[in-house]
Structures are given as structure tokens and as C-alpha cells.
Amino acid sequence: MKCPFCGAEHDKVVESRTTNEGEVIRRRRECETCGERFTSYERVEPRASFVIKKDNRREPYDREKIKKGLLRAVEKRPVSLEKVEQVIQNIERKLPYNNENEVSSDQIGLLVMEELEKLDPVAYVRFASVYREFKSVNEFVEEIKTLRE
């Protein structure tokens, strides 16, 4: 692994521990060239190889896209980065795959909304407004009414 400080490829693992119910391994590393310490995380790659978009295009599954959408939804909300990571893990655990290890973007979006509804109602409405492409304030009001019920 390359050192983020000097770019050297030789480091040693100083400490390892599991986090998030054993699904992630956190490793503290020390660069053997410059002596700086940094952290790396290891997780099992999700089974999905491709995401089928609404227009039937296929693109490689990208965990970072889900993370960016979640971070945008929880911006300025009392939600930690750890909670966001946990939500992503929950989503990846629930992803329904077809025979070609593909999953639709609709299925991912619904799982994101399901997780956000439990996590933070404001973040949920923010995400829903983009995902469902709200065109008016009335659509916001209807979603909030549904959320309250």
C-alpha cells in the first residue's frame, strides 16, 4: 500500500482491529520510509458488478456514489460518518442480485430511502426529493405527511 505522505510502497501494520460488527478491518500502518502513520480499511467487495440505470445502461457498481448521495442528504445534520458507513453496509447486505450480479439503480435508491427514514427524517426527505424528482412543494408536503404517519 502506498504511503499517502511520501508515496513509498513499504509499510508495516502496527495495529489491526475489526469494526462494524466484524465486517471491516481497520489497520494502523507506519511507513517504513518516512515514519508517518496512516489508517486503512479492508472490507469484502460487494457481489454486484454492475448497476442497471433507468435508461438500461449498465455501469460498474460504485460504493462511493452511494456514499456521496448519503453525505449530501445528511449534510449539516447530526449524523456521523460512522453512521453513514453503517448505512452503506446495511444497503450492500440487502442488495438483491440477479444471475449476472447486476442490481437496478431503483433497488439501490429504495434501500437508501429505507435506511435514511430510520436514520434521519430530514435527510430522508432531502434524498427522496431528488430520487423521486419532486416537481412542486406539494410533493414535499405529501412525503412529509406520509413520513409522519
TrEMBL record:
Family according to the record: Belongs to the NrdR family.
Domain ATP-cone intervals: 49-139
Record GO biological process: negative regulation of DNA-templated transcription
Reported function: Negatively regulates transcription of bacterial ribonucleotide reductase nrd genes and operons by binding to NrdR-boxes.
One of the Pfam families matching this protein, by short name: ATP-cone
Protein name: Transcriptional repressor NrdR
Cofactor notes: Binds 1 zinc ion.
Superkingdom field: Bacteria
Cofactor field: Zn(2+)
ZnF locations on chain (unnamed): 3-34
One MF term in the entry's GO annotations: DNA binding
UniProt entry keywords in alphabetical sequence: ATP-binding, DNA-binding, Metal-binding, Nucleotide-binding, Repressor, Transcription, Transcription regulation, Zinc, Zinc-finger
Keyword set includes Zinc: yes
